[in-house]
Design brief:
Number of helices of chain A: 11
Largest interface: A-B, 45 and 38 residues
Oligomer: heterodimer
Strand order of the largest sheet of chain A: 3-2-4-1-5-6-7-8
Shape of chain A: elongated
Radius of gyration of chain B: 21 Å
Strand content of chain B: 5-15%
Helix content of chain B: 40-55%
Bound molecules: guanosine-5'-triphosphate, magnesium ion
Structural class of chain A: alpha/beta
Helix content of chain A: 40-55%
Largest sheet of chain B: 8 strands, mixed
Distance between the termini of chain B: 29 Å
């Protein structure tokens, strides 16, 4: 189950009696390279390596493991514990409706994730209603309406309204009147450096008080993941993240960067374009995928 | 190389960390740093400013400045491809507007017949760009749309045909086959088509972009260029250096926003400068 660079570490430490600072450093150079190739952020990788080095130095001699196996074991363990818990659920509000808000960069998969979450909640016996709060992108509202029709779930859209805030409020209000116990707010893609658009999100949050704010991040994101996650978290205090498009062959290092910088859980993983293509997060699988 | 001053090695390390943080990738970064050392030795470069100039020169060279494939064939057929959400439909709209602004008659083909409201989205762009628009029903065969568009382009004497395709992961063989069929369809209708196959890459993408470029290029018998989008954010798009080194595919356009004007022709020296700012 060891491939690539991790296997190389075990090989290179063959014949060494125990872990020394010198051979630890050499192994960590290879680990760092593996992390960078997997799109882990440069500074996040450095912090991770420093932590692992301390643990390796403090490890002492383990009779039944070779130094190489020890090293890989420490790296794996540290990565898994950083990845966080398995399958953290969306918090259901004590008194309905539970309000879930999605946010993220352009094209990350929010509208599709809105549909997938609705499908997920339907499966758990809930009655979702969706808010089409992207008034900017051409046919964004129509896109969500099509998904709503496929799921037989109502979609709130205000014909000529240019106010995402108004749309979200109406959706929450309708949830109460139509006995829908989950509201999912699909927002427009935006840059974390677009002050006006980030203010719009803060405004929605302040007016509607979502129980759950999820950052939707494209699984193939590179070094920039840290900037995006940090900014959205600082502005909104997100509750977690959905990592999308993981049905491809991107290594997904963005996951480690997001975890390191926000300490918030990755709750779901998108694994396809269909509305049932949403999985709960598995930290061990993610760790293996990143280490390659 | 032991003749280096300490300052140079420190500077090289700083350059390395900048390149890595802009998604240039480990292997290509090492290649660039080694190349820089060689150039510096060749030209006996010592001071940091001159070293940075050498670096900019080396990196601009990697990106090249190959002009778009020339052809006076009419219509010019441009196929737009790439993974999900990278900015293809928006880029197609911007390009249509650009050509229309040059007085060209543009026809847009809605070959994404799969994703919810994809055709509606592209139709808005066609109206904005004042381009002709060819569409079929949602769920129909994309190649049939393209066939229809090629026929219409001839009948209407269009200058440019822009084909927007559905987003697809390069790991989906059946979807890559669908793309090949679209390409064949243009070629059957017109010798030499498509004249351009443009890969739209999201500027925030990491190392996976190299794999995307490789697979799309292999499937389609080459890519004529890349459109690198969303550079108005904080991502730098350094992955195009890896693509330049390994595949030699040039960047033709960059996307710098969601508006119709937010498309720029690629300027390598400016791009390299932005990387270091
Ligand atoms: N393969 C795959 N494609 C996905 C996944 N999630 C979303 N997509 C696709 O990614 C593209 C973008 O998805 P959208 O839901 O429109 O993204 P968005 O974040 O709402 O985009 P904006 O509203 O423009 O910011 C579409 O083609 C989706 O079908 C996933 O997990 N896997
Ligand atoms: N900020 C910014 N956003 C962009 C740029 N180009 C495209 N976008 C946005 O990215 C999102 C996705 O764009 P689309 O054109 O729908 O992408 P696509 O590749 O056609 O998506 P699929 O067809 O679903 O695969 C939209 O919200 C666009 O407005 C750009 O250069 N800058
Ligand atoms: Mg959307
Ligand atoms: Mg599209």
């Amino acid at each position: 189950e060891l491939t690539g660079r991790m296997e190389g570490i075990v090989r290179n430490l063959r014949g060494q009696g125990k872990l020394t600072e010198k051979n630890i450093d050499e192994s960590l150079r290879q680990v760092r390279r593996a992390l960078l190739e997997a799109d882990v952020n440069f500074k996040v990788a450095r912090t991770f390596i420093d932590t692992v080095k301390v643990k390796a130095l403090g490890q002492g001699v383990l009779r039944n493991l070779s130094p190489g196996q020890q090293m890989v074991g420490i790296v794996h363990q540290e990565l898994i514990s950083l990845m966080g818990e398995e399958a953290v659920e969306v918090a259901i509000a004590e008194s309905p409706p539970t309000i879930v808000m999605l946010a993220g960069l352009q094209g990350s998969g929010k509208t599709t994730a809105t549909g997938k979450l609705a499908h997920h909640f339907l499966g758990a016996g809930h009655r979702p209603i969706l808010a089409a709060a992207d008034v900017y992108r051409p046919a964004a509202v129509k896109q969500l309406q099509v998904l709503g029709e496929q799921l037989e779930v109502p979609v709130v859209a205000l014909g000529d309204s240019r106010s995402p805030l108004a749309i979200c409020k109406v959706a929450v209000d309708r949830a109460g009147r139509e006995d829908r116990d989950v509201v999912i707010l699909d927002t427009a893609g935006r840059l974390h450096v677009d002050e006006e658009m980030m203010e719009e999100l803060r405004g929605i949050r302040g007016a509607v008080h979502p129980h759950e704010i999820l950052l939707v991040v494209d699984g193939m994101t590179g070094q920039d993941a840290v900037n995006v996650a940090e900014a959205f978290d600082q502005d909104l205090d997100i509750d977690g993240c959905i990592l999308t498009k993981m049905d491809g062959d991107a290594r997904g290092g963005a996951a480690l960067s997001i975890r390191q910088i926000t300490r918030k859980p990755i709750k779901f993983v998108g694994v396809g374009e269909k509305l049932d293509a949403l999985e709960v997060f598995h930290p061990e699988r993610m760790a293996s995928r990143i280490l390659g | 190389v032991g003749r280096y001053d300490r300052i140079d090695e420190d500077l090289l390390e700083e350059i390395e960390s900048i390149l890595l943080q802009t998604d240039v990738g480990v292997e290509t970064t090492l290649r660039i740093i080694d190349g820089l050392r060689d150039r510096a030795v060749d030209r006996r470069t010592r001071n940091p400013d001159d070293l940075m100039d050498l670096l900019r020169e080396e990196m601009a060279d990697i990106l090249g400045d190959a002009p778009a494939p020339a052809s006076d064939q009419r219509p010019r057929v441009i196929m737009i491809v790439g993974v999900n959400g990278s900015g293809k439909t928006t880029t197609a709209g911007k390009m249509a507007a650009r050509y229309a602004g040059e007085g060209k008659k543009v026809l847009i083909a809605a070959a994404d017949t799969f994703r919810a409201a994809a055709i509606d989205q592209l139709e808005v762009w066609a109206r904005r760009a004042e381009a002709d628009f060819i569409r079929h029903q949602h769920g129909s065969d994309p190649s049939a749309v393209v066939y229809d568009a090629m026929q219409a382009a001839t009948a209407r004497d269009a200058d440019v045909v822009i084909i927007d395709t559905a987003g697809r992961l390069h790991t989906r063989d059946n979807l890559m086959e669908e793309l090949k069929k679209i390409k064949r369809t243009t070629g059957k209708q017109m010798d030499g088509a498509p004249h351009e196959v443009l890969l739209v890459l999201d500027g925030t993408t990491g190392q996976n972009a190299l794999s995307q470029a490789r697979v799309f290029s292999e499937a389609l018998g080459g890519l004529t260029g890349i459109a690198l989008t969303k550079l108005d954010g904080t991502a730098r798009g350094g992955i195009v250096f890896a693509i330049g080194v390994h595949l030699g595919i040039p960047v033709r356009f960059i996307g710098v926003g969601e508006g119709i004007e937010d498309l720029q022709e690629f300027d390598a020296p400016a791009f390299v400068d932005a990387l270091f700012n």
